[in-house]
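Exercise: predict the fold of this chain.
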Amino acid sequence: MSDIMEHRPYSTVYSLLVHGEDDLVGQIAYAIYKQQKIEKIKRFTTANDRPPSDIDLASFMENAESEIQLRFYQDRAVSILRDFLEQSFTSELEEINKQNKSEYDAKVNELLVSLRPKGFMYGVWQGVFASFLFFAAGILLLLATGGWTRIGHALIQLAQ
């Protein structure tokens, strides 16, 4: 068995597509190649009632290792990865928007509750309190400017 493996040519597609452990595009491209190879083997087996030999797959392998086909695998891998990332980012963005909308709605509701009218008596008491403050400010102003004395002198002159 080891003699057969030593003489059997191996595919170089993996080394042509994948350039390191972290090469995600290359890994996806290689998976696309393997998918095509499996489909080719299934079609051949169905059409010929037997699995293909290495000679039967030679033209497929030659084509798979061509620059044009390698570029196809890479382009398809980039497309798949781009679609995946777009879906992931779209999903994440929708989740963030939902969360922001929920927070926004909560703040708007909180603001609306704080702005809701308090009733007639609340307004009356606000008016009474404002009037008291205005009256107290007037008295303080008169005391600070000596206005009581002037008012007193003016009343005395009027009375005479």
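Check your answer against the key: Residues 121-160 form one domain.
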